[in-house]
């Protein structure tokens, strides 16, 4: 295999398939994400977006090939991905409710446990409190007592504590009040600006396309459309199906 | 909060000294005030403390519901019985058998855990329940074609524990004071129970302990954080099992007799009740749960007859039946009024109240 070059995408997915019994949730899809990009995967409920993301994070069995940073990762166990630089923010946030905010963040750096990494981890924790001032106020509070928006911030912060190169974000707007959605998406944008590549899965197409540079549209398990965010926002098919116009 | 205030009033080492003195004189007070029957109950309570602390690692820390935990107790007990009794004519020293029993139980924990830990919740509970029964039934039937466990008759005349050349089943004379056998046993069990407790506390605050908590709260997120969930869960099973095996060895030597009927499903449920009623995942609560659930049924057993005699002039209901009835009522009352346990983890309460 050729060595990774700048022209090769950071994430390259080829013929990904996810099957639940006899149902094909993801049908042979292929796509890629280049380093530094903020790409979204939009589509309706049940289109297979979350299954795609879970398959990328190796949480569910899947067919096809996944190349990440020039290396095949579809044989790796899920827990090994974070040390490769690939982090998942799961659907429904998945914060550890009976751990405090600070402990949740520390769990994100679980694999960075060598004594010489301690200082860097502490620095990163402080950085999370700058990115999410709300979390700084609630540092000693149990994650289960936070509001939905704060939990989403915590879930993103926890994933960032693993020092990922690629962040997989699953429905960060789900169940949040409009004002909080804006805060969370501002944070996502600033994370992307800090150099982290992001693959964002979202039902809220308008919101996703305003922060992303490129998008893929998924429909019943297949990618039906792909273009720049600008063009997708203008596309009559997208406008009719996802933007309610 | 209250702990902090206590610290301000009394230095920590004074508190510790008082606790040591209280624990040291407790058996003498129990034996003088209530008699040797209760001293025996106290020794058993310490065994249950060890068992409950072991199960707490699996259920409380890692959140894996294990309904067959008593199997590990059985393995430890039978290892002791086989290696220190006339059954095989082996009389190994206690410092070799107790760790061996714990190790054997640990091995059984891994053997059970490896195939079943991909299951969760109810499914795991059913499989572990089955495993517990399988172990008991094996002990019951391994007397033919080769007699290993002596079947339902059990193994008798097991060697008592010897510490420094002195058998704990014999009273010991120190400086003219005779320390009864049950008190010696109490001290030995207490030392090991404290050891198990300290191990539990250290584990809870370790990297492994936090990984257990993460798995308990959200397994997928734990995986995403880089936790090898399968191995860490297996570790919880193995640790819990070894504590159970240790307690089992002590049980065999204390009773000087083991038989399969001591390891029924009811015992697994009792230990689980101790953990849940005390306060899952909270070590002081689990200890309290073990003490309460060992002492209360005994109190019912001994108290129900005389109380009926005094009130009604005759014994209307068999104390043995009444014991289970009152025990059930007590469980329902705790579930209604203290749903997160008698002495829950302060964290648990905080979350419960915020809902």
Describe the protein's architecture and organization.
The complex is a heterodimer of chains A (245) and B (355). In chain A, strand 1 (11-20) and strand 2 form a beta hairpin. By secondary structure, chain A is α/β, with parallel strands linked by helices. Chain A contains nine helices and ten strands. Chain A has one domain (11-241): 3-Layer(aba) Sandwich (Rossmann fold), CATH 3.40.50.300. Chain A has a six-stranded mixed β-sheet, sandwiched between helices. Chain A has a four-stranded antiparallel β-sheet with strand order 2-1-4-5, covered by helices on one side. Chain B has 355 residues and is mainly alpha-helical. Chain B contains 14 helices and eight strands. Chain B has helices at residues 2-9, 12-34, 36-61, 70-83, 94-116, 121-141, 181-204, 207-217, 219-224, 229-255, 265-278, 283-312, 319-337, 346-354, and strands at residues 84-85, 90-91, 155-156, 162-163, 166-167, 172-174, 177-179, 257-258. A two-stranded antiparallel sheet of chain B has the order 1-2. Chain B has a two-stranded antiparallel ribbon with strand order 3-8. Chain B is globular. The two termini of chain B are 22 Å apart. Residues 1-6 of chain B have low confidence and may be disordered.
């Amino acid at each position: 295999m050729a060595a990774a070059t700048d022209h090769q995408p950071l994430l390259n997915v080829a013929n990904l398939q996810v099957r639940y019994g006899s149902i094909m949730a993801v049908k042979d899809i292929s796509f890629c994400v280049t380093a530094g990009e903020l790409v979204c995967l939009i589509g309706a409920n049940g289109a297979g977006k979350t299954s795609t993301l879970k398959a990328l994070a190796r949480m569910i069995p899947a067919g096809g090939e996944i190349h990440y940073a020039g290396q095949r990762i579809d044989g790796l166990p899920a827990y090994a991905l974070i040390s490769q630089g690939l982090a998942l923010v799961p659907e429904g946030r998945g914060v550890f409710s009976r751990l405090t905010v600070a402990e949740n963040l520390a769990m994100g750096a679980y694999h960075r446990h060598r004594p010489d990494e301690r200082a860097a981890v502490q620095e990163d924790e402080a950085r999370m409190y700058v990115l999410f001032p709300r979390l700084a106020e609630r540092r000693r509070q149990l994650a289960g007592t936070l509001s939905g928006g704060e939990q989403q911030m915590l879930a993103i912060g926890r994933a960032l504590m693993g020092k990922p190169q690629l962040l997989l974000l699953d429905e960060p707007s789900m169940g949040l009040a409009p004002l909080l959605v804006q805060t969370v998406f501002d944070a996502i944008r600033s994370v992307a600006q800090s150099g982290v590549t992001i693959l964002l899965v979202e039902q809220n197409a308008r919101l996703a396309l305003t922060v992303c540079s490129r998008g893929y549209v998924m429909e019943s398990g297949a990618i039906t459309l792909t273009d720049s965010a600008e063009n997708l926002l203008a596309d009559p098919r997208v406008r009719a199906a996802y933007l309610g116009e | 909060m209250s702990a902090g205030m206590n610290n301000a009033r009394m230095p920590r080492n004074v508190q510790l000294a008082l606790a040591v003195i209280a624990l040291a004189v407790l058996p003498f007070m129990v034996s003088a005030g209530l008699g040797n029957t209760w001293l025996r109950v106290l020794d058993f309570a310490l065994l249950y403390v060890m068992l409950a602390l072991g199960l707490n690692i699996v259920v409380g820390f890692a959140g894996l519901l294990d309904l067959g935990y008593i199997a590990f107790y059985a393995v430890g007990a039978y290892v002791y019985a086989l290696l220190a009794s006339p059954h095989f004519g082996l009389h190994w020293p206690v410092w070799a058998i107790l760790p061996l029993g714990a190790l054997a139980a640990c091995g059984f924990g891994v053997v059970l855990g490896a195939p079943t830990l991909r299951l969760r919740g109810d499914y795991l509970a059913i499989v572990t329940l089955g495993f517990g029964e399988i172990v008991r039934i094996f002990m019951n039937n391994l007397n033919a074609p080769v007699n290993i466990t002596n079947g339902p008759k059990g193994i008798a005349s097991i060697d008592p524990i010897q510490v420094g050349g002195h058998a704990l089943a014999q009273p010991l004379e120190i400086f003219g004071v005779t320390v009864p056998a049950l008190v010696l046993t109490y001290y030995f069990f207490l030392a090991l129970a404290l050891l198990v407790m300290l191990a539990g506390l250290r584990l809870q605050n370790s990297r492994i302990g936090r990984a257990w908590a993460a798995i308990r709260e959200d397994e997928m997120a734990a995986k995403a954080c880089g936790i090898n969930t399968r191995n860490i869960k297996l570790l919880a099973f193995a640790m819990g099992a070894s504590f159970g095996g240790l307690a089992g060895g002590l049980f065999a030597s204390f009773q000087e007799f083991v038989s399969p009927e001591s390891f029924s499903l009811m015992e697994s449920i009792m230990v689980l009740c101790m953990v849940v009623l005390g306060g899952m995942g909270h070590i002081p609560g689990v200890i309290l749960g073990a003490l309460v659930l060992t002492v209360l049924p005994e109190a019912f057993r001994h108290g129900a007859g005389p109380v009926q005699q005094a009130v009604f002039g005759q014994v209307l209901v068999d104390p043995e039946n009444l014991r289970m009835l009152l025990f059930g009522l007590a469980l329902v009352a705790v579930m209604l009024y203290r749903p997160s346990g008698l002495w829950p983890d302060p964290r648990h309460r905080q979350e419960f109240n915020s809902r």
